[in-house]
Write a structure and sequence with these properties.
Layout: E1 3-7, E2 10-13, E3 24-29, E4 32-37, E5 43-48, H1 52-62
Antiparallel strand pairs: 1-2, 2-3, 3-4, 4-5
Length: about 60
C-alpha cells in the first residue's frame, strides 16, 4: 500500500487493486483507519475507530 503523504500522525495511502471502486484515499492513524471518496467531492466513506474530532482534522487536510 503506497503512501501518498504523511501529515502529523496521519498516513494517506491507497491500495493498488481495489476493483471498480471510485477514486478514494485511505487514512491511517494510531487510532484507526478511515476512507474518503475523492469525487465528486471529498466525502467520508467509512471509519474504523477514528474519533470525530480527528476525522474533522483529516477532512481539512484533504481539501
Amino acid at each position: 500500500m503506497p503512501t501518498v503523504i504523511r501529515i502529523g500522525k496521519f498516513r494517506f495511502h491507497f491500495y493498488s487493486d481495489e476493483g471498480l471502486e471510485p477514486a478514494h484515499i485511505h487514512v491511517r492513524s494510531p487510532d484507526g483507519e478511515c476512507k474518503f471518496w475523492l469525487e465528486p467531492a471529498i466525502l467520508l466513506s467509512s471509519n474504523h475507530d477514528i474519533p470525530v474530532r480527528e476525522l474533522r482534522k483529516v477532512e481539512k487536510l484533504s481539501l
